């Protein structure tokens, strides 16, 4: 029973410290929380929590603040996630559904998440290494020019124009479109070479250059566009919402966030977590510039035809000070990821 009570005391300390940005004392816990025990018992529980390395006293005669270990236990023991309000859910849906294309969806998602959490939002672009080809459209534009439109299963659209060696035959272009999509639709970049290698054999020798030209432009376009990248929004929130103590350490945080390789490494590691929403706290980020921050991320992707969720192809998340609203941040990250997945799957 005392263990449960001490966890309640830790939860109260975390919540109060997040809300007030001030070290929390036993008197404040008695006044603000119905813990059902005497102040002396709370002081004993705080001493036990300090001995366990879950809280620390930053200054003599000051209250206690959570340590990285304390935040970790708080996050791991979260029983419920604060739900978003109905207006918040409608705002997310409306804002994202108006997006025109993938770039617009990513841009809106990262700005929206930064507004919801008042922290830095991070969205990883769906890499074409992990996405599949949904459709290739071939549109003749003139006698010898062909527009090749490449659409991935997560809404990414690339367009290229090629020049045919001879005048285009409409029937041949239509047949090539059908054969190309039959062979390639649903396949990932690494699989396309094998799937398309013999496509020219299905056409007359005179059509071979056109077929090979289209196959080459599809493969080359996907290879060129397969780099990993992330988009950030809300870096100013770190200064506005982190407090004076956090503002003093902001420079190394901003420098770390500017390094795409650092963010991509973290996102890749967090993708391996079994939890649906992954949290890295302080030194768990394994980067000196980020020891005063926490990362909350989850995967996004799409939904299959039966309504089940497919494996995530990229991640979305929030970065903020250790003293963040973990339940609220987790709820916001998860909600935006779900809407993002639905839109890209549509």
From TrEMBL:
One of its GO terms (molecular function) is DNA binding. It holds the Pfam family HTH_DeoR. Residues 34-61 form the HTH deoR-type domain. GO terms for biological process: negative regulation of DNA-templated transcription. Residues 103-330 form the Heat-inducible transcription repressor HrcA C-terminal domain. It comes from the Bacteria. Keywords: Repressor, Stress response, Transcription, Transcription regulation. Negative regulator of class I heat shock genes (grpE-dnaK-dnaJ and groELS operons). Prevents heat-shock induction of these operons. Belongs to the HrcA family. PANTHER family: HEAT-INDUCIBLE TRANSCRIPTION REPRESSOR HRCA. This is Heat-inducible transcription repressor HrcA.
């Amino acid at each position: 029973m005392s263990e449960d009570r001490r966890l309640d005391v830790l939860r109260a300390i975390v919540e109060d410290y997040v809300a007030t940005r001030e070290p929390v004392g036993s008197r404040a816990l008695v006044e603000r929380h119905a813990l059902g025990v005497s102040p002396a018992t709370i002081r004993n529980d705080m001493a036990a929590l300090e001995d366990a390395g879950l809280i620390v006293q930053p200054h003599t005669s000051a209250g206690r603040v959570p340590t990285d270990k304390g935040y970790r236990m708080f996050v791991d023991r979260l029983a419920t996630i604060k739900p978003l309000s109905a207006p918040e859910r409608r705002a997310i849906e409306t804002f994202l559904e108006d997006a025109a294309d993938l770039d617009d969806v990513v841009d809106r998602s990262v700005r929206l998440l930064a507004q919801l959490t008042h922290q830095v939002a991070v969205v990883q672009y769906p890499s074409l290494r992990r996405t599949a080809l949904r459709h290739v459209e071939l549109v003749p534009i003139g006698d010898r020019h062909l527009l090749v439109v490449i659409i991935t299963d997560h809404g990414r659209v690339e367009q290229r124009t090629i020049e045919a060696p001879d005048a285009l035959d409409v029937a041949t272009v239509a047949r090539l479109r059908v054969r190309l999509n039959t062979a390639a639709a649903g396949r990932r970049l690494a699989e396309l070479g094998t799937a398309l290698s013999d496509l020219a054999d299905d056409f007359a020798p005179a059509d071979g250059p056109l077929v090979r030209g289209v196959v080459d432009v599809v493969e080359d376009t996907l290879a060129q566009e397969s780099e990993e990248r992330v988009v950030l929004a809300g870096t100013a929130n770190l200064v506005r919402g982190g407090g004076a103590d956090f503002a003093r350490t902001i420079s190394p945080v901003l420098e770390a966030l500017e390094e795409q390789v650092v963010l991509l490494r973290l996102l890749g590691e967090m993708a391996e977590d079994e939890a649906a929403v992954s949290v890295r706290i302080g030194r768990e980020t394994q980067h000196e510039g980020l020891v005063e921050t926490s990362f909350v991320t989850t995967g996004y992707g799409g939904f299959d035809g039966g309504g089940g969720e497919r494996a995530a192809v990229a991640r979305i998340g929030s970065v903020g000070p250790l003293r963040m609203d973990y339940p609220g941040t987790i709820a916001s990250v998860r909600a935006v990821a779900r809407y993002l997945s639905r839109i890209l799957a549509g």
